[in-house]
Amino acid sequence: MSYLDHLNWRYATKRYNGAPVPEAPLQNILEAVRLAPSSLGLQPFDVFLLEDKTIREKLAPAAHNQPQITESGALLVFAAWNTISQQQVDAYINNIASTRNIDISTLDNFKSAILNSIKAKTPEQQFQWNARQAYIALGFATAAAALEKIDSTPMEGFNPAAVDNVLGLTDKGMSAVLILALGFRDEEKDPLAHAKKVRRPAPKRQTPVPTGIRHMSQSVPTPI
Ligand SMILES: Cc1cc2nc3c(=O)[nH]c(=O)nc-3n(C[C@H](O)[C@H](O)[C@H](O)COP(=O)(O)O)c2cc1C
Predict the structure, then answer these.
(1) Domains defined for the chain, CATH in brackets
(2) Does the CB atom of residue 17 touch ligand 1 within 6 A?
(3) Which of 13, 87, 132, 148 is buried most, with the most CB atoms less than 10 Å from its CB?
């Protein structure tokens, strides 16, 4: 099966059969999140794994009682850091130096560039920037889940303040931006289990392209 077959197999699952996600694929999905790229490499978000039914039942009203919250096998909650602190930058720089076994002073310019780029942003802009990094990791997790034949649902249909409250995220200096439900589809209950995937038509490469600009993803198809 090619990776495109796996991506066609996946869909945003609405109803799950409640079976837990086995440890090996779950760990691989979490590893894909860890391996996702992030701007400057800062990884400015944390991920929380919720398998316990009681905590997920508590969370459900914060996510409009979408059935995936309690029927899936596990939830990953992606929480973006509210801001980026000097200590978090220090920890990152220390990690580079020790991982690559290099003198930390060789990273002084890089560290200043990071701190300047943070200083140029308001706290809200920092949070939004951090959230964007979490979205990239969500994409990696969703694709990894498909390769592992684990169903998933990316979700932002929830009240972040209510989720933060249930999970105690405000005290940790972060806020929920995404939930990824993981598990196994319930083919009988899920009306979308056999629905065709809806996407705009795949773009064709036109030749020649005098401008050198190929518009590959058109929101309104150009009449031919
Ligand atoms: C960022 C994001 C947030 C989403 N939020 C929800 C959600 O809260 N509940 C839900 O059932 N689906 C949610 N979806 C799923 C989309 O509706 C779905 O991916 C889209 O309709 C395309 O269908 P497919 O993923 O099945 O191919 C979300 C998807 C993304 C990427």
Answers:
(1) 3-183 (3.40.109.10)
(2) no
(3) 13
